[in-house]
Amino acid sequence: MKAKGTVVLGVDPLIIHDDYHIEYHHSYAQDSPFFVGLSQGKLRGSRCSACGYTFATPRAHCMECGAPTEWIDLPLTGRIHTFTTCYYGGELFLEETPFTLILVEFEGINTLFLSRLKGCDPSTVRIGQPVVARFAKTPSFKVTDVWFEPTGP
Amino acid sequence: MRPVYMISGGITKFAKAHPRKDFRLMVKEAYDYALADVPRLTKEMIDGAVGSYFSDHFTRQLKAASMVQDYLGLCPKPSKRVEGGGATGGLCFQSAWEAIASGRMNCCVAFGFETMSRVNTWKGNEFIALASDTNFDFPVGGFYTGYYAMMVQRHMYEFGTTVEQMAMVSIKNHTNALYNPYAQKAKRLTIKDVRESPMVATPLTMEDICVMSDGAAVCILASEEVAQQVCHRPVKITGVGSGSDAMRMADRPRGKVILLPHESEADYRHLHYPGVHSFRGGRMAAKLAYEMAGITNPLEELSFVELHDAYTSSEIQTYEDLGLCRYGEGGQFVESGAPFMASIEYGLELPDQGRLPVNPSGGLLACGHPVGATGLMQAVFAFWQLQGSIEKHLGNDQLQVPNPKRGLIHSHAGTGTYITVSILEACE
Ligand SMILES: [Zn+2]
């Protein structure tokens, strides 16, 4: 993604300036620590305080039992659960095609994380391939502040 | 709950663009067609309406269903809008069913529409992708074809499903549509044609994906008393079910299969379910609808299916959710020829051709997918099938399933977030 300056309107919760024809003051609310974490090179998930279920994409309450979750640091390495290379896309992303989407699985974590795979030939991508997280040097406070690259075949 | 009947239906031709008609006029055309089919039904007998359209962005008009309500002359009768992504039409149909079943109404109009032509295809794809999590999914490259491509990659990995099997779905639905004048994109294709058309998101090509449409559809539902009074051949709605799943595919659990009566736990000892390869909400919808309709073996007890084939891959995934075959066998199911029409030539070797026709109309792949109308379009085709009136409405009888007893319609949103299944039966 092209680097774009992001206007930060508040930090607790983290509120950034976003636009989609309409201008929003978009609050990440209870998910804010995840996006702050990306700016510090951390990938933060959730663990249920009651049943222990773990979420690679964070949520403040457990989807299984409803109890509050606590923040955990995810490993920065995982494996490709599934993938695709997009040659077309929504208008906002057309200029970035082709790009590769992956769902990442992490050892010992119950759910997955959607991200982009960079730094490789799309034709070599396969399910089970090991990947490592990379972080944007200049944060946009968006989920694209993290992406993955292969560490092996 | 009272018995509920469908007594009439109407659709506009689905087209890439209807620049001369706004959404009100498209619905009006479908509505007038439906009314003409039941001339004894008077306006006084209609108690209210439910309207459906997916996106306020496409319409560039909030409260658009109110504008349809007044255009149809149905004010001040009760009305509301139902919205549930791609399942909008199916949810609208079931909402009208609820109005009759509860006794609140004796006759209810379900109308749906979408005007997708007013933005370019890629802006349209962006609008649709806004129906994915806008914090965690959309910014990564929000594109529904990409999401479905990831699902089928996993389906191929788990079960050995092939792109050639997916291409067979495309051939089937586009060929069926040659006999459906309402369809947008009918044509003959080969496996090679499908695979060599432009790649959109690996492994899905342009011919694996439905197109955007302008169109409208109307269903009229009624109590037994009204149905007997005005309709010579009503169709009974004997089962409704719906289900849901987490908005983000990444959040789908990997647990146990929700079993249908003809399945056992031993069938799925090693399957982590639903993962990203199956639609748990679709299985739940089917299970509830089958229970209400008393269906224990869908492959044996259904005469045809109209399902939400936004992608060739999702038709294969849905065979499994509906229990037409076991999980993992969807690819073999299409290869067997079972979901093809018995009397149509497809240019393929099909050993079990026509056992249970799926998408005789051509489905979304060939009819088009004007979102709010789609689930209702399926109901209209199913209604005409069960009435035995396909020839009257399509101008030819090629797509008439012989002596159909029971049909299933299936409407599907997001990556499987809302799904409806309804069962319709011919009356003796
Ligand atoms: Zn829990």
Structure description:
- The complex is a heterodimer of chains A (153) and B (428).
- With 153 residues, chain A is mainly beta.
- Chain A has one domain.
- Chain A has one helix spanning 32-39; strands at 8-11, 14-20, 22-27, 44-48, 54-55, 69-73, 77-86, 99-105, 113-117, 130-135, 146-150.
- In chain A, the strands form three sheets. In chain A, strands 9-8-7-10-11 form a five-stranded antiparallel β-sheet, with no helix packed on it.
- In chain A, a hairpin with a 5-residue loop joins β4 and β5 (54-55).
- With 428 residues, chain B is an alpha+beta fold.
- Chain B has 17 helices and 13 strands.
- In chain B, the strands form three sheets. Chain B has a nine-stranded mixed β-sheet, sandwiched between helices. Chain B has a two-stranded antiparallel sheet with strand order 5-6. Chain B has a two-stranded antiparallel ribbon with strand order 9-10.
- In chain B, β5 and β6 (204-205) form a beta hairpin.
- Chain B starts with a strand and ends with a strand.
- Zinc ion binds next to loops of chain A.
What descriptive keywords fit this protein?
heterodimer, A: 153 residues, mainly beta, 5-stranded antiparallel beta sheet, 3-stranded antiparallel beta sheet, 1 helix, 11 strands, B: 428 residues, alpha+beta, 9-stranded mixed beta sheet, two-stranded antiparallel ribbon, 17 helices, 13 strands, 17% strand, globular, binds zinc ion
Oligomer class: heterodimer
The overall average pLDDT of chain A, rounded, is 93
Cα Rg of chain A: 16 Å
Main beta sheet of chain B: strand number and arrangement? 9 strands, mixed
Question: What is the general shape of chain A?
Answer: globular
Query: Which strand order do you get reading across the main beta sheet of chain B?
Result: 3-2-4-7-1-8-13-12-11
Low-pLDDT sequence parts of chain B: none
- Quickly count the helices of chain A: 1
Beta-sheet strand percentage of chain A?
A: 35-45%
The termini of chain B sit apart by 21 Å
Described by strand count, sense and barrel closure, the largest sheet of chain A is:
5 strands, antiparallel
DSSP strand count of chain B: 13
The termini of chain A sit apart by: 25 Å
On the 0 to 100 scale, the average pLDDT of chain B is 97
Which chain pair shows the most residues in contact?
A-B, 40 and 40 residues
Report the order of strands and helices of chain B: EHEHHEHEHHHHHEEEHEEEHHEHHHHHEE
Radius of gyration of chain B over alpha carbons?
Answer: 20 Å
Task: Tell me the strand order in the biggest sheet of chain A.
Answer: 9-8-7-10-11
Question: Helix share of residues of chain B?
Answer: 25-40%
Assign the structural class of chain B, choosing from mainly alpha, mainly beta, alpha/beta, alpha+beta, or little secondary structure: alpha+beta
